[in-house]
Batch of 2 targets.
Target 1
Amino acid sequence: MTKPYRTALSLLLVCLSFLLASKGVYSFIVPRNGALRETRSLFTSFQFEDESPEEPTSNRQAEFQNLEPVQESSIRMERKRKDKETGKKFVSYGDDLWRLRSVMNKLSRRLLDAISDGTPEVEDKVRSQLREIEQQDPELVYEMELKDLQLAKATGKTDDAERHGENAMEARGCIPAFNLEGLWVGKYGHHGYEMINVTYQGDQLIAYKVTGDKNVPKGEITFQVDLSPIKPKAIGSGKMDMPLQPISLTEKAAKKWGTKQLPRYRGLGHVAEPRFSNGQWMEGQLILISQEYFSFAWIPIETQIFFGRPSPELALKMLRENGVSASGGLKAWESPPPIDADVEVLKEFAATCLDLTTEDAEESLEGGAFSCIWHGVDTEECSFQ
Ligand SMILES: *[C@@H]1O[C@H](CO)[C@@H](O)[C@H](O)[C@H]1NC(C)=O
């Protein structure tokens, strides 16, 4: 197949899947898996009602029946294989990681004892045990590899630098705090629900407001967090440079969230008076609750906002209400364009389908639209000190 033809076909497929979705054939549910299922039901996203698919009404629909799944490209398959392999190297977020860290603490103490006791055999043994398990903690590996990278660069060892750079990125990809990219929704007090966009600039997490309010409007940063494990030593700082200890949960809360501790990171929260005047940054904390929920706390004003992933319908609705449209203007289509039509024409058709689908989806989105976002009632367990 030639490239333009393939592009056209995939555009039509995208379009078709939106059409199907609007007919209730597909249901869009935020993906979820095992451990936190119970909790996640709090955030359950909207689901299309199940209607039986309609009989094909146009002869064009026949073209899309019994389609084989698209063959994945070799690059994509290779990447998936690598991701899986990398995932196996590191302990995943949650209690396995906390257990690993407590074993590391024990071994470190034993190492210190061995050194002060002057027992080199014990020292060697403990040291190699420690080295081995350290390799399973992605945050620790990221930090160590970055330090090695700096050293290799400083000493002009380009091959080493390249290897450490790759290892560092591999570990970084397995750290939950570096996997929050994209859209989230949280309740900003009496301003109501707002959407934010989490982005990364290097190791800085920067959360922009996608929708805003009269204090901090859209497009502005709502909070930011420096996640870099290596911070330049500032003179006279001290306490504020120390990493924050994770929050220990009560037994009940631990069960609910599937983890005994919640990691947290220092950041800066943005506040302002109406019309974005007197904006200022204040001490804040990013608290990871699970891979899919987090909160940010504005410490001095004792405000904590919980963020959850919006369902696709809610995301579209909030974006549209804020003047972000999938297509410029709507064009009325009597019938779909032919498959060999110009790519631009097909694109326009797909965009129209998306807009119509969105309208459909919004009609069915009623008061429960925000039920997917948890607003932190019943959360005394997760509050910060
Ligand atoms: C979110 O941020 C990314 C990266 O900067 C950007 O590409 C994307 O368009 C943003 N999304 C919205 C809805 O603002």
Target 2
Amino acid sequence: MLVSAIASVALFAAGASAHFRLNYPEPRGVFVAANEVNFCGGYVNAVSNRSTYPLSGGVFTINTGHAGFTVGVLLSTEQNPNSWESFSLNETQTFVRDYAREEGAGTFCIPLDIAGANIPGAVDGANVTIQVVFEGGDGNLYQCADLTLSSSFTTPSSVTCANETVSGHSESSTSTAPSTSSTSGSSGNSGVGQVQYLSGLTAAGSLALAGLAAALL
Ligand SMILES: *[C@@H]1O[C@H](CO)[C@@H](O)[C@H](O)[C@H]1NC(C)=O
Ligand SMILES: *[C@@H]1O[C@H](CO)[C@@H](O)[C@H](O)[C@H]1NC(C)=O
Ligand SMILES: *[C@@H]1O[C@H](CO)[C@@H](O)[C@H](O)[C@H]1NC(C)=O
Ligand SMILES: *[C@@H]1O[C@H](CO)[C@@H](O)[C@H](O)[C@H]1NC(C)=O
């Protein structure tokens, strides 16, 4: 894990801007850093080979070399959500998980309890798409994953669900010393850890998230 941590630090240290990767569930397409600023990371259409995903008690894992970020998750119940409107109900973005703030850089396995969000249509057997929204201080970044929800499916054991923080880069720090620390814990939504849940937030768009991040920095 230390080797991969160093590799990711080196990777991200090369660029000035923030990036993140959605490691699980599998995103729509191959990661293209330059397209991450675009809707679904540049992949407009849903894939036909969807990942089966737990209706309850799921997780998603991201990796970033950028210390200090907010991350939230939007959900659409459309078969082919290819516009921002697809991720909104009544002109309000459909959050399956409110924005959370994380101070570190590294790999994070974050609970995603879709059933608990009570989104109409996000039920057993439904095709849904999640859009992970990441803000590291210089604008929103996006990755999407097309899923089929299952009440009997649990996160595969092949998915590493652990948090590993590294010294990343941020607006206020240029340190790249690869010190690591690991934590483990429950995957329940009650395992708040370092994340502050910003409940009740219904950002109307990317500007709102950018404003939020600015307020927190
Ligand atoms: C879910 O998506 C798959 C692949 O696109 C499709 O074959 C299937 O009919 C869809 N299921 C539902 C319930 O819409
Ligand atoms: C879907 O198919 C593509 C092309 O074969 C593959 O690269 C990708 O891993 C598949 N995705 C899933 C979620 O199985
Ligand atoms: C959307 O707005 C309509 C009209 O105000 C309302 O009847 C409906 O319940 C709303 N739907 C949701 C999901 O909030
Ligand atoms: C990782 O950290 C986040 C918050 O920082 C926490 O919600 C989550 O439960 C942690 N995951 C593990 C596997 O400890």
